[in-house]
Amino acid sequence: MARRAVEQELSRERIMDAARHLFITKGYRGISMRSIGQHLGYSHGSLYYHFKEKAELFYAIVVQDFNHLTLLCEQVTKRPVVDGLTKTEELMLEFIKFGLDHPHQYEIMFMLRDEEILSYCRAEQSKCFDKFKTIVQRFLKEEQHPLQQNPSFPLTMFLGIHGFISFYIQDRLTFDEIMPAAVGHVKMLSQSTYRLTS
């Protein structure tokens, strides 16, 4: 196949989608550029037009997924308030929805424990949490939440929703399937603090 035809047919996006799946199912060390190429039905040489090495491909996936999650969180700030939910609760639900509806992405972003690749995730995890924390603090102030000045509260919320996602993600349940449990969980995270401070 001519190089131009390969470049046009085998897009960056297609390579990243295949690699994301393989990183989760076989582990970072368990796959190579050759195995990704075989999975796609191409020679591994055709992948090098888009990515110089496996590490570069992995990092591109991590950045793309964190950018997607950040965008979803920012969109919550622009939406009208949903009846029965605070904006803080909406933000937590959006985070849970992303995790359950994009399990492969979430696992790569937050759950892989391979020392070789943790460095690729840590900086992006930190940026994601900083964005989450900034939005949460703004919402808490607007809502006059009693813990709006507590610097550890956003982390407590973040860990609470991560725990929820980690528990349900193994069953491959969608957000819609467990939405009542998700709503109950974020309300408990948010409202239990009122009892603690009253």
Task: Tell me what the structure shows.
- The chain is mainly alpha-helical and 198 residues long.
- 72% of the residues lie in helices and 0% in strands.
- Mean pLDDT is 86; it is low at 1-7 and 194-198.
Write the layout of secondary structure elements.
Layout: H1 3-9, H2 12-26, H3 33-40, H4 54-78, H5 87-101, H6 103-111, H7 115-142, H8 153-169, H9 179-197
Helix pairs in contact: 2-3, 2-4, 2-6, 4-5, 4-6, 4-7, 5-6, 5-8, 5-9, 8-9
Poorly predicted spans: 1-7, 194-198
> How far apart are the first and last residues' alpha carbons, in Å?
70 Å
Radius of gyration: 20 Å
Q: Average the pLDDT over all residues and give the rounded result.
A: 86
Number of helical regions: 9
Q: Structural class of the helix and strand makeup?
A: mainly alpha
Largest sheet: none
How is the quaternary structure best described? single chain
Q: Any idea what the shape is?
A: elongated
Strand content: under 5%
Write the H/E string, N to C: HHHHHHHHH
Number of strands: 0
- Helix fraction, binned, reads over 70%
Short summary:
The protein has 198 residues and is mainly alpha-helical. The chain has helices at residues 3-9, 12-26, 33-40, 54-78, 87-101, 103-111, 115-142, 153-169, 179-197.
Overview features:
198 residues; mainly alpha; 9 helices; elongated; disordered N terminus; disordered C terminus
